[in-house]
């Protein structure tokens, strides 16, 4: 571990101005407007100034009276990588919209370290506001206005996306986003942290996919400058005021795997939520590693089944 370079592992380098050079370029896929395909998709601007946008998905050939749940989706990537246009994410979103079925809103939030937390939470709030506005505006997006059931809106995130979902859900009661109703939150392998090491972090410190030096670096790049891993954005167990807010979460699905260094933190989160009266459905598998569902189709389908049952 002494010679291990987390920047090499992530295939990035930090520039003097605090920006990141990302060397890995994954293939991308354009949205699909061909109604002969199972799912239609399109890109919409979220905030021009912030250069944020979203890709919307819905099943093709919907009867005009059909109302589907809305899933606002926040992708993984350790705060610093990935886009909803990348083919891997696009196919995931296609499948989710078809299988659940749902109107899926995949949010292309800003990345760290160019934009540190809470920028990503702000982008998520913008996305919730956008969905709300489309439903009430006469010129609102027809997929939301005509096909979305705003009583069944779900926040769904994977890894850092699950962290975004959790922190956004705690903000929403102040917003009172009527007529939109958040019916539940889905936390797939939530990326949480803390200064004191857990047993799973120590046991899996040299994990080939998600080793401890990489986890530490990602937090260093994402958290506000001058803070540490016990900041409330990272550690949900240390801030009393934040823990008090969880009572407003509604029902919550938490998914995790035993080979993930973060699994102890995820289970501690579940315990804290349950102790505060949150309705939690916990789905933990002893076998599997962080983000296994990105490369293991069987696990991806299993998670999709959990989501279908939850929604």
Description:
With 311 residues, the protein is α/β, with parallel strands linked by helices. Helices cover 34% and strands 22% of the residues. The strands form two sheets. The protein has an eight-stranded mixed beta sheet, with helices on both faces. The protein has a two-stranded antiparallel sheet with strand order 1-2. Helix 3 (119-136) packs across helix 5 (160-175). The radius of gyration is 19 Å and the shape is globular. The N and C termini lie far apart (42 Å). The model has no long low-confidence stretch (mean pLDDT 95).
Can you lay out the helices and strands and say which pair or pack?
Layout: H1 6-10, E1 12-14, E2 20-22, E3 39-47, E4 52-59, E5 68-74, H2 87-99, E6 103-108, H3 119-136, H4 142-147, E7 148-158, H5 160-175, E8 182-188, H6 199-203, H7 212-222, H8 240-245, E9 251-257, H9 263-275, E10 280-285, H10 297-310
Parallel strand pairs: 5-6, 5-7, 7-8, 8-9, 9-10
Antiparallel strand pairs: 1-2, 3-4, 4-6
Helix pairs in contact: 3-5
- The value of Rg in angstroms is 19 Å
- Separate helix tally: 10
Order of helices and strands: HEEEEEHEHHEHEHHHEHEH
| Widest sheet, order of strands | 3-4-6-5-7-8-9-10
């Amino acid at each position: 571990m002494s010679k291990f370079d987390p920047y090499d592992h992530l295939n990035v380098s930090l520039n003097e101005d605090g920006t990141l050079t990302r060397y890995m370029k994954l293939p991308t896929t354009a949205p699909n407007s061909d109604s002969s395909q199972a799912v239609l998709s399109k890109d919409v601007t979220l905030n021009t100034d912030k250069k944020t946008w979203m890709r919307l998905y819905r099943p093709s050939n919907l009867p005009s009276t059909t109302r589907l749940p809305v899933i606002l989706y926040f992708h993984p990537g350790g705060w610093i990588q990935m886009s909803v246009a990348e083919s891997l994410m696009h196919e995931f979103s296609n499948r989710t919209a078809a299988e659940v079925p749902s109107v899926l809103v995949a949010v292309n939030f800003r990345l760290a370290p160019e934009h540190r937390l809470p920028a990503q939470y702000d982008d998520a709030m913008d996305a919730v506001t956008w969905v709300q506005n489309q439903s009430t505006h006469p010129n609102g997006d027809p997929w939301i206005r005509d096909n979305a059931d705003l009583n069944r809106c779900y926040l769904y995130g994977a890894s850092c996306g699950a962290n975004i979902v959790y922190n956004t859900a705690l903000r929403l009661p102040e917003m009172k986003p009527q007529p939109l109703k958040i019916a539940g939150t889905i936390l797939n392998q939530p990326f949480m942290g803390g200064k004191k090491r857990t047993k799973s972090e120590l046991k899996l410190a040299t994990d080939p996919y998600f080793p401890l030096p990489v986890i530490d670096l990602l937090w260093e790049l994402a958290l506000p400058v001058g803070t540490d891993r016990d900041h409330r954005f990272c550690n949900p167990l240390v801030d009393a005021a934040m823990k008090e807010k969880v009572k407003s979460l509604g029902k919550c699905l938490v998914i995790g795997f035993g080979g993930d260094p973060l699994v102890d933190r995820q289970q501690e989160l579940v315990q804290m939520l349950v102790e505060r009266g949150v309705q939690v459905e916990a789905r933990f598998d002893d076998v599997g590693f962080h983000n296994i569902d990105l490369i293991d189709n069987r696990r991806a389908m299993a998670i999709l089944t959990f989501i279908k049952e939850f929604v």
